[in-house]
Amino acid sequence: MGTALDVRVKRAGKVYRDGEVLSGVVVITSKDTVQHQGISLTMEGSVNLQLSAKNVGVFEAFCNTAKPIQIINSTIEMVKPGKLPSGKTEIPFEFPLQMKGNKVLYETYHGVFVNIQYTLRCDMRRSLLAKDLTKTCEFIVHSLSQKGKLLPSPVDFTITPETLQNVKERASLPKFLIRGHLNSTNCVITQPLTGELVVESAEAAVKSIELQLVRVETCGCAEGYARDATEIQNIQIADGDVCRGLPIPIHMVFPRLFTCPTLETTNFKVEFEVNIVVLLHDDHLITENFPLKLCRM
Amino acid sequence: SYFLRLARSRNYVSESEVCKLESVPLDFGDYHPLKPITVTESKTKKMNRKGSTSSTSSSSSSSMMDPLSSVLDGTDPLSLFAAAADPVTAAPPTNGARRKRDKDESLAVGSDFEPWSSKRGEILARYTTTEKLSINLYMGSEKGKATTTGSAVSEKVRTRLEELDDLEEGSQKELLNLTQQDYMNRIEELNQSLKDAWSSDQKVKALKIVIQCSKLLSDTTVIQFYPSKFVLITDILDTFGKLVYERILSMCMDNRVSLPDNFSPESVNDTAKETCLNWFFKIASIRELIPRFYVEAAILKCNKFLSKTGISECLPRLTSMIRGIGDPLVAVYARAYLCRVGMEVAPQLKESLNKNFFDFLLTFKQIHGDTVQNQLVVQCVEIPLYLTLYSPAIDWILQCIAYHAPDVLLTEMMERCKKLGNNALLLNSVMSAFRAEFIAARSMDFIGMIKECDESGFPKHLLFRSLGLNLALADPPENDRLQILNEAWKVITKLKNPQDYINCAEVWVEYTCRHFTKREVNTVLADVIKHMTPDRAFEDAYPQLQSIIQKVITYIYDFALLFSVEKFLPFLDMFQKESVRVEVCKCIMESFIKHQQESTKDPVILNALLHICKTMHDSVNALTLEDEKRMLAALINGFIKMVSFGRDFEQQLSFYVEARSMFCNLEPVLVQLIHSVNQLAMETRRVMKGNHSRKTAAFVRACVAFCFITIPSLSSIFTRLNLYLHSGQVALANQCLSQADAFFKAAVSLVPEVPKMISVDGKMRPSDAFLLEFLCNFFSTLLVVPDHPEQGVLFLVRGLLNVIQDYTWEDNSDDKVRIYTNVLHLLSAMTQEAFIYHVDKVDSNDALYGGDSKFLAEINKLSETVVSQILDHLKTLGKEETLKRQSQLALYFFNTILAHGDLRNNRLNQLSVNLWNLAQKHGFADTKTMVKTLEYIKRRGKQPEMSHFTDLALRLPLQSRT
């Protein structure tokens, strides 16, 4: 294993946008001179859809369509076949990140059923005796700022035993009154979700209050679709029996990679929701759901 | 005879005239390097912060002040360190002087801000438990977490604790039944594994450890240990914060140049920023509130890499985040941590400090809520104890707020606390944290508020203690002073529990000493004795009692006044544990030595101090360390030197006799006594102008006898030798000839016992230099000692020479010959008609023999022997490796002849030429020295009747350097 190949992009955060130039270096380190049949660099971007187990049976027939959707794929030849000197060789490259036609460069997103990923792959072809060398490096795409101003959409909420749905025995519930608001359900992805929550009263002691960030992924085609909601993260905002009447801040940072601006295409959808979960001491679990719309400004 | 021709006769008077330097009138100006150091008294206010018991290091004007004794007053770093570890005497290393508001409200807190580090020890020592503790660590990934939060207690008792540092992914550790010490060790191990993980580049593991540790802070089982747990775990958080900050800072290094302290975010490179951002994203996704809060607070400083306003935006957010913490105790400590980090990173951001306190006030009612009360019932913890758990946190928050804060703000804070039903817990924290001047000025108000407080809650004696601590630092209005004391003491004296009582009383003693007379101090001491004597309660209160003594002697250092405080000595009787007793005695003696200006014969002082010194002396045993003995002896000596009965010499002597019998185990004290007695004898002589009466002669002989019988009990041989010589001189000066002889004989017979190596300051050193010095000194004295009529001529000199002859000298040393050369000086001085010096009223040999030829012949014979010994020795040095010594010794002998010999004598002249040549023969002579010597001889030759020197010079060739 005398030869090592590495791809490094210039930006520390590896974040690029449509229209920008991806620049960096391919680094080859070797003790001896390297004989090769050419070095090429490939930029790939694709959406991978996966069907959840529970839906597989139903959609098997037509959802072979669940093969990756290619967003971008282009290759450049960096070095013609020849020899590289021993030691460290750095070959700089510049790769324009440009979409053809009116295709859209979706933002990088790592989900459960939907994955949008961009990679740079460097291939060094070699003679029959030596194995070809390959190195991939993920880079991250952020979509362009959305035009227009984001309209804040504040939401006030009140949670009492009466406002709850899906309750079996409403009579057995302890009395409580929880009020609060979200500053906006239209969120800029780089800004935290904010708001306040007040436990005005609660008969039972509060055990915990949590914010549950949920992704709702929809995959499908004309014939049918699968919709799945899964948890991304759970952030506790109150621990223990909090002081009554004292506003508790709601604050959640959207995690990178696992969230992206709300996305709706013909083949798939990625949406987000937040649940406010209140856990009372007698293990009563109260959940209030809020759909969010994420965007990048 | 032979030697007569050898020694030149001297006219000491005229020689002295010639040699004397021109006398210059001395100007006794202000400055003299040897003048005793006088320190002008500058009243330094007692700067030690509350609760300190260490004595003041304020200046003293005593010229007797031993510069080394400053080591004794407890302000050296070692004893400070010890004090910090001691819960009761915990004295912060900083002089917690709360100075007037500095205009410089810079980015860092000043040294007048008492740092967290000085609180740590106190908290750890105060909040302890004997209950079993548990640690629950879950090193799994955050998402797949299965266990519920909260209870870490499992019923299973593990027989064997597994290794803690095996913190593998997904492993879960539950350590049960830990004692407090085990717990602390485990936490320290975690701290270590954090550092290890970090240094082995396992950053994720490091983060997991920190998260797990901060999670322990949400556990309030064994609640009385919580403050200490907070201290331990926030240490880890501090470590982590520092590691992350330094790591990112090191990424900003540009060409090995690190960023300046006040860098701006623009100068931080992208990689460092990205790393920093990553940390914040990672922390923001921590599931649980308390770890998320603590870890983010720990790396608050890292916001500096990202933006200028980062910290000022973060602090309010973190502050309101704490509102989500339900347990009020956990929350208040979280606030304390945030304030602590905030003060360190951005002390100028005061808003958040205030907000933290106001938020705390808003949640104050929770303390009396059901959740807390139920918890206390389960844990069997009483409300008053529970409330004291809040103090360190609230004190700290208030201290941060009060730092450089205007009075208006303090007043507002006070009013807010008052509104909450005049709560004692808050009142106490206000008193602990606010400026002492602020509190002292409102003392009467505070007393009023304390009285109104609810009895059932926070312990009231703690409130009085806190008030007392303030009054020890700042003075209340003149008119209120007595009333304050009366009001406070009325409450204090009613305290039933001796510990509560003494903790309060200790503090108020300082106030009493500061503002009142000995009468009030006496009353207070009496009250303390009354409270602490039943059931031997004093046994559990030695530190406090000790601190009371410290305070009393700090303020009353006139010892006549001090011992007239009737209850002072009875108070001392409470120190029945020897080690403590000795410590107290040492303090008193230190104070005495420091403050006593004039010598005393006051029987009250003498009796009391003798008693105290005796106590110190009696504590010495086989196990006592040398240092300790030295210190005790120095203190006792200091006392002995201050005792004077004026003209009543007999009384003085009998004091010394008594002292000798009391302090016989401390040699330095015996040495001091011998010196003192010798001094007494000389003082007597001075008073009698040298003519002793029958009575004084007898008295002086008594002094001499004292010394003579005391010296043999000393163990150090050189001490004995020197004291024999010294006492002999004193005896001689007092015309006690036979006694002087006895001293000198004793010295002579002691010389053979001098070992080759002696211990100096704990190291073994060759003794020859000491012996040489002593012998020269001894010979000089022997010049004037008259021969005993019944002994032979020069009996003592012969005796000493014999001893030197027989002494086993080091194999390759020339010491013996050097001494012999010096003996020639003595012998030549003895041949003079009138000796160079005399003892007043004592006839020396010059007068006794009057230049008798037989006497001179004896000297002559002696000199011949000595000279031949020297020459023999020079011959033995002819070997290659000893040639240098031969050269040096030859020159030494040559110089002796030059100075003392009569060079008109041919043989002597020839001898000196031979020596000169010998010195140069093998090229070991120093040319410069030889040239100078020759110049000297030539110069001498120009003087009248010294033409033979010119001749001699011609015969002395200078060897040219090859």
TrEMBL record, chain A:
Keywords associated with the record: Endosome
The free-text function statement in the UniProt record for this protein reads: Component of the commander complex that is essential for endosomal recycling of transmembrane cargos; the commander complex is composed of the CCC subcomplex and the retriever subcomplex. Component of the retriever complex, which is a heterotrimeric complex related to retromer cargo-selective complex (CSC) and essential for retromer-independent retrieval and recycling of numerous cargos such as integrin alpha-5/beta-1 (ITGA5:ITGB1). The recruitment of the retriever complex to the endosomal membrane involves CCC and WASH complexes.
According to UniProt, the name of this protein is Vacuolar protein sorting-associated protein 26C
Q: Which Pfam families does the record match to this protein?
A: Vps26
What highest taxon heads this organism's lineage?
A: Eukaryota
Q: How does it assemble?
A: Component of the commander complex that is essential for endosomal recycling of transmembrane cargos; the commander complex is composed of the CCC subcomplex and the retriever subcomplex. Component of the heterotrimeric retriever complex consisting of VPS26C, VPS29 and VPS35L; within the complex interacts with VPS35L. Interacts with SNX17 (via C-terminus); the interaction is direct and associates SNX17 with the retriever complex. Interacts with SNX31; the interaction is direct.
Where does this protein reside within or beyond the cell? Endosome
Is Zinc a UniProt keyword of this protein? no
The record's gene field reads Dscr3
Q: Which GO terms describe its cellular component?
A: endosome
- State the organism named in the record: Orthonyx spaldingii
Automatic annotation (TrEMBL), chain B:
Return the protein name: VPS35 endosomal protein-sorting factor-like
Coiled coil: present as a keyword of the record? yes
Query: What UniProt keywords are attached to this protein's entry?
Result: Coiled coil, Endosome, Protein transport, Transport
Indicate the segments annotated as coiled coil, or none if absent. Answer: 161-193
| InterPro entries in the cross-refs | VPS35L
Which GO biological process annotations does it have? endocytic recycling; protein transport
Record's GO cellular component terms: endosome
Biased composition annotated in UniProt, kind: Low complexity = 52-63, 84-94
Task: Specify where the region named Disordered lies, as residue ranges.
Answer: 39-69, 84-106
Major place of residence? other
- Where in or outside the cell is it found? Endosome
What PANTHER family is this protein classified in? Answer: ESOPHAGEAL CANCER ASSOCIATED PROTEIN (PTHR13673), VPS35 ENDOSOMAL PROTEIN-SORTING FACTOR-LIKE (PTHR13673:SF0)
Membership in a protein family: Belongs to the VPS35L family.
